[in-house]
Every structure is written in structure tokens, then in C-alpha cells.
Amino acid sequence: FILSGSSVLIKKEVIIKNKLNFLSEAEPAEDVNFWIRLSRYGKFVFCNYKGVIYHRVDENSIMNKKSDKVKLTPPFLYKIDWSKFMQKEKEYLKKFIKKEYYKTAYNNRKKFLDKREFSLVLYKNNIKISIFNMIIYFIIRFMPEKVLNLIKLFLKKRGKDENICN
């Protein structure tokens, strides 16, 4: 996914013609939702040239706000027409959503449980969260930090993706 909307060039006609805009209903994932919808109207070209590196930390941004309230997996696929995706793209998006589901579990640690966290269906595209994935969510959510760190260390040594919980 695009990391920063300020580093992208898009033809204005594509956005106007297809009535593409950020959907506030998809917050806090409105940017990712926009890129997924935009991907239906052309190809992306990636250039890894770094002309400038600038990073600003905004304490008041949505990403940095601390809250005692449980967060749900963001609505990345809000108003996405699932039928326009090829099977390979659907599988990639499902994998992405599953990883985000696990990240949500990690970010909800030390917060009161909310039954909406264990929703069986995410979005109207019928991406189902299996019982197995809910068990993993529950383990990540409630496992002691020391045990979780040991698992992450074990996965790292085996060459697996250690970001399963980050």
C-alpha cells in the first residue's frame, strides 16, 4: 500500500471521472480504502528514489491517540466492489485483513473486552474470520507479554514473519 498520500501523482481526471474521494465512514482507514478503490482504474508504478526524507510526529494524529476504548479492525474495504478483483488480489487483501485483525488484537491488549472484536464477518464482502483466527486473536490479545516476546523471538530465529503481532 501507498505509505504517504503526499508522495503520489494521480491524474485529476481519473479521480473526477470515477468520483473517487476519501470516505470518512472508512476512518481510520480512509487512505488505504482510497488506494484499494483507485487500484481498479489503473496500474501503480513504484519508484523507490528518495529525493527527500522527512518525518513529523504529530501527537494529535489519529494514529497516535491513546485510548482505553477497544478499537475494531478498521473498515479497509468499505464500499469496495469485491467482484472487480481477481482471485489473486482477493487472496492478498484477505491476508492483509487477517494481519490487521491480529494487529488490532495486539493494540487492544490491557483493555476491556468488547464482543464486537470477535465478529465473524468483516465488511459486506463476506471476509469471514475463522474460529482458528479468532483463537489466535484471543491468544495475542490476552497472552502475557513475556510469552508473546518468546514466540516472536522463536519465529524470528526460524525466519518467519515476526510482525504477526506488530
From TrEMBL:
Q: Which InterPro entries match?
A: Nucleotide-diphossugar_trans
Organism, as annotated: Caminibacter mediatlanticus TB-2
What protein does this entry describe?
Uncharacterized protein
